[in-house]
Amino acid sequence: MKSNLLLGAAMTVGAIALTSAPSMAATKFEFWYGLSGDLSERIQDMCKDFNASQADYEIVCVSQDNYESNLQNTIAAFRANKQPTIAQISDGGVVDLMLSGAYVPVRQLMEENGYKIDWSNYFSGIASYFSTSTGELLAMPFNNSTAVFYYNTDALKAVGFDGAPQTWEQVEDIARKLKAAGYECPIAFDPTGQWQWWEEFSAVHNQPIATKGNGFGGLDAEVAFNKGKFVDQLAWYKKMYDEGLLVNKSKAAGETANDSFVNAHCQMSSSSIADHGFIGKQAKEGMHWDVTMLPVWEGTERTNSFVGGAALWTLKGKSAEEYKGAAAFYNFIATPKQAEWWSTVTGYIPVTNTGYQAMVDKGFYSAAPYKGRELAIKSLTFTPPTEYTRGVRLGNFGAVRKEVQDAIQAVLFENKPVQQALDEAAERSNAILRKFEKTYPGATLP
Amino acid sequence: MIERSPFFDFVSYAAMVIGLVLVLIPFWVVIVAGSQSLQEVARVPFSMLPSNHLMENIQAAWARADLGPKLINSFIVAAGVTIGKITLAAFSAFAIVFFNFRARMICFWAIFITLMLPLEVRIVPTYSIAANALLPFQVLLDTLGITWLVQSVSGVQIALNWNLLNSYTGLILPLIATATGTFLYRQFFMTIPDELVEASKMDGSGPMGFFWDVLIPLSRTNMLALATIMFVSSWNQYLWPLLVTTDRANFGTVVMQLKALIPAQNGTPDWNVTMAGALIIMLPPLLVVALMQRWFVRGLISRDK
Amino acid sequence: MERRAFYRNGWLPWLLLAPQLILVLVFFYWPTSQALYWAFTLEQAWGGGNTWVGFDNFLAIFADNKYWATVGRSAFYAIAATGLSMAVALILAMFADRALSGTKLFQSVFVWPYAIAAPAAGVAFRFIFSPEAGLIGAVNQMWPGIWDPSTVGWHALAMVIICHAWLGIGYNFIFFLAALQMVPRSLSEAGAMDGARPFRRMLDLQLPLIAPTVFFLLIMNIISSFTDSFGLIDVMTEGGPIGATEVMVYKIYFDGFKGLDYSGAAAQSIVLMLLVISLTFVQFKWVERRVHYN
């Protein structure tokens, strides 16, 4: 009786052992990103394609809705030791991550896994944001963009302006003419758009966001936006706002800036090149529009603009197998076919020289609906990155951005004096930076 | 009403009708907007009459906010919290009211003080607990040297880890931990006459016998009241589920989806879909309140008084 | 009521209490001690370590006049929402107490706001008050720009306060009605015989007698304005415009989770905790005493 039982048990164990023999199961690893809607679907497509292209690894892609939630949730998961292998972290969240050492530099990852990548192929304007101060890439550039200026060609022609506005003087002139001709909203202004209206403005005019090379040189940098050209620029925004030439457009005000542009309610707007596809699809029937680089003041020597968007960071604490999978995924998205696909279905720009060149050679940028996107590359590579156009490396930059955003809004909506608003924002921003410095005593930026 | 005062009666009715309108306007707007088409809802001024697009809006909201699985999650959480709270609080209140042990008042205050600390006030640190709920015990073991002891003796390292992120336990447990139910039961138990206890003792039954045979049957209405209050309150939780789910697709609750329903940036202002979705989300607790009103009103009053 | 009949059993009460005590330890006391620890250090976002800074975090927030603006705003929010909600609920309860025929129907509807989640009400009110659509949009058409919660701070604040007050009507109504119904009819009859009209009776007789309830609701409403406001504000305004609707609890969430300033958020949490504890403490001490004397 007992021996029968034992035999039965042994057979069961044997059966279990046989059936659970290590099968060639694909290594699963997770990728968390902060995009939603249409863009999220494209990423899901990309992940499906990766899984279909090979059998060793399976990527699981989870949307966290927006960059902030993604950062928040990734940190929570990291503290709980449940982090994804790859996380899409945008330019604002980068410094905390860098100082925490909670990531695996992408160059190291690719080398360790035997992939040869030509790192110099990446546009320096893009790579510099996510690299060490000596130019070694830490994260894989992914969805990158820059700020551009959209304009309604019909409206501009109607007031006698042909071609693309290149200077702010021209923009002001056009706006006045539009207003006089009865256009209610010459320029759409997104009050949360400090990225394009402040940061990118400063970049193309080679104005410092902060001392020490925008923070690249050390944690003891101080903000610089309350000095220099931005002060005048904000005063100019205020003047234009008061005259009704710059109109507040946001979700809370009833219509976002982009919506107002595609509905031809507003004739000029500034936002990311990533919106190029959306505008193309949604533009009112019969509307003619175009895109150009951000305007500069006459006589300015234009410099390259900042890269926007995010990069893919590989987080520490995962298994070697998962890192192999991540490396394979990076390799996959870097193939010319994938890169071209990504730049086609979204407005994001190619991140490598060869990738861009291949698309130019194919005539991608010669006709609608993609014509105009090459201007983003032109803007990003207008000059080699200078001390102030490499990017911004300030701790807790999100909080600093909020201070500037509040200052801009206070000036426009509450009539606060420009210099006072910016000085106060600068004081608070510096306090934020000093606190950040104290939180990481003795740390140096990579 | 003591005397006949037709004028004052009229004033009373008028006041109550105005009150009715004030209270009902948001509900009415939600229903009406949820039943209109995109053009109708964007029309200014907004028409206060319902239209006939309710079903299609509900379908759109259902898809956009993925309401199906979320509704199930909300039900699981609400049911879990309700059942958990009813049982747990009964035991605790029983212990505090009917037993005379030295630490009695300390236990009472320890539980009671938590009423003063609603979650919103503790979000940052409670968040760290969600990562590893057993951390306090781990620290306890570490400081007492037990971890070191066990490790040197058997080579086994105690690493307690209980991750509450993205789990039903994580969604339910912290909500059971609050003292509201305990307080409700305590108030009620305090009104139980001594004679009942004496009689039970004389019948030879011990404390648990008294608990199951006498106390629980008497508490039925209170339990129902507590159940309705807890169902509504746990269904309506917003902040805690927001913090403790990183995998929103699988563990999100339905109230969290409200933000997702609001017309998106760079999108069309389809408030009609938003309102249809809000309607679905509001319905279950509203039904509970409307239908179980007698019980839960009684529960509220006796709990807090 | 003094209890004299007890059970004496050494370990049973502990067994019964264990689940709740453990939960309370894990989810209340431990996190609170963690918050204290974080409040006195500078905590790194990704958890790498922290530095002791003593009272610096507290000093920093007390020196920040935006923090005091938030505190003032929270106080204003609390008083306005509470006042509005309780006033409306009291008036409705007083009329409902007259028990005219058909009141039961009104009564059951007045309770409904209690069932609604704060964010859900937030969505509905956001639509009602949005400047371009719905109901207020019509007003904006006639007088353009008169209502704009996206740029005018106090419009946004008003919108949020109204929504919060609406949510509280159900809860307050239940308590007021119950309290009014406990006022002995004999008193009202005596008052009537003395020649007092119904309205006079309301003011001079009923109001003072329900004072303990008024006090109790005052505290509960104020505490709710600190807690329930979160979901509401997150859905309606996210603290904007320019922080015009940023109350203490929202600032904690924003600074901690969006600003990655865990230590500052922890310090603010401690301050808020102390505030709420003292409020509840006051309430229980006073109301308990009053109830006993009555």
UniProtKB/TrEMBL annotation, chain C:
Alphabetical list of SUPFAM superfamilies matching this protein: MetI-like
Pfam families reported for this sequence: BPD_transp_1 (PF00528)
GO biological process, one term: transmembrane transport
Domain ABC transmembrane type-1, first and last residues per copy: 71-283
Membrane topology according to the record: Multi-pass membrane protein
Keyword presence, Cell membrane: yes
Compartment annotation: Cell inner membrane; Cell membrane
Family from the record: Belongs to the binding-protein-dependent transport system permease family.
Official protein name in the record: sn-glycerol-3-phosphate transport system permease protein UgpA
Classification of source organism: Bacteria, Pseudomonadati, Pseudomonadota, Alphaproteobacteria, Hyphomicrobiales
